[in-house]
Amino acid sequence: MRGSVPRAADLYPPNVVPAQDGNGRPGTSGAGQKLNHSKPMPRPASHRKSQHLFDHWKQVQRRLAAAKHLALFLDFDGTLAPLRPRPADARLDESTRALLRRLARSPSITLCIISGRRRADLQKRVNVRRAIYLGLHGWERDTGARSAIAARGFLASARRLLTQRLSDLPHIWVGDKGPCFEVHYNGASGATIREARTIIRDVLRPLKKETRVLRGRKVWEVLPREIEGKGAAVRALLAEFPRPVLAIYIGDDTSDESAFQALLDGITVRVGRRRRTRAHFELCNPEEVSSFLQRLEAEVA
Ligand SMILES: [Mg+2]
């Protein structure tokens, strides 16, 4: 599947171009994945507000009680750990870590941490031994990378060129993530963001076929096509699970939308208030995610 169809609009910051439909076309709806779906969830749609998870707790409880096994997918930044202007400063609360360790020990739960971060970095920050870690939107797994990156050299050149050309713009900086990179614009003015966007488009024009740009919170991620996104990664991992399994996915960003779409039969939760999401439910912040995990622990105990 194509995780997210790249669009020029992905290059635009939210304050320049109105959001369209989250993370592009997430591909097939997960048909063929025989997931546990005893009760239909509220219909996810990109044109309505999602609903607070705790307001529908009884319904969720019934699904949890009926499930034989849970695949619990959790994003890191903005979901488990509060967002920080610099990703290097994001920290997991010790009580959340202890909670994750207890959940990972449960025989009825497989805990999967999925992030745009490198896998090694993610594993170090979460530090829960029994979890499965999916880095670079699921492209990096414990079994290694899912495919080779054909344009890796070109991407590295583009990163170096952008680092140079963006260096004079205040609050704009380039982060290297190996086979991909990101351009952060937290704190930059609208004019600066527009200027950065023009430079990025200019530099990436020759690589249009090999790359796509994913817009996150105050960041543009420049990804090779081979990194299909979280939706594709979640589907691939779930295909290895014994049936039946109920998938729960919690994430806060545009990059999580393809996973919400891939898990229409699961329980999907978007963190933070969003006008448009494909998730069934919403939670307000990482504190509420932690509260949900406590409720989940009580249900599976
Ligand atoms: Mg996130």
Structural commentary:
The protein has a seven-stranded parallel beta sheet, sandwiched between helices. A four-stranded antiparallel beta sheet has the order 7-8-10-9, covered by helices on one side. With 301 residues, the chain is of the alpha/beta class. Helices cover 30% and strands 18% of the residues. It folds into two domains: 19-146 and 228-300, Rossmann fold, CATH 3.40.50; 152-224, Trehalose-6-phosphate phosphatase related protein, domain 2 (Alpha-Beta Plaits), CATH 3.30.70. The protein is built from eight helices and 13 strands. It is globular. The relative contact order is 0.23. The structure holds magnesium ion. Magnesium ion binds next to loops.
Would you tell me the structural class of the helices and strands?
A: alpha/beta
What is the CATH topology classification name of the largest domain? Rossmann fold
Q: What is the oligomer described by this structure?
A: single chain
Number of strands: 13
Categorize the overall geometry.
globular
Bound small molecules, by name, code or SMILES, are:
magnesium ion
Main beta sheet: 7 strands, parallel
CATH architecture verdict of the largest domain? 3-Layer(aba) Sandwich
CATH level 1 class label of the largest domain: Alpha Beta
Cα distance, first to last residue? 37 Å
What Rg is obtained from the alpha carbons, in whole angstroms? 19 Å
Query: What is the count of structural domains?
Result: 2
Q: Note the beta-strand portion.
A: 15-25%
Low-confidence stretches: 1-39
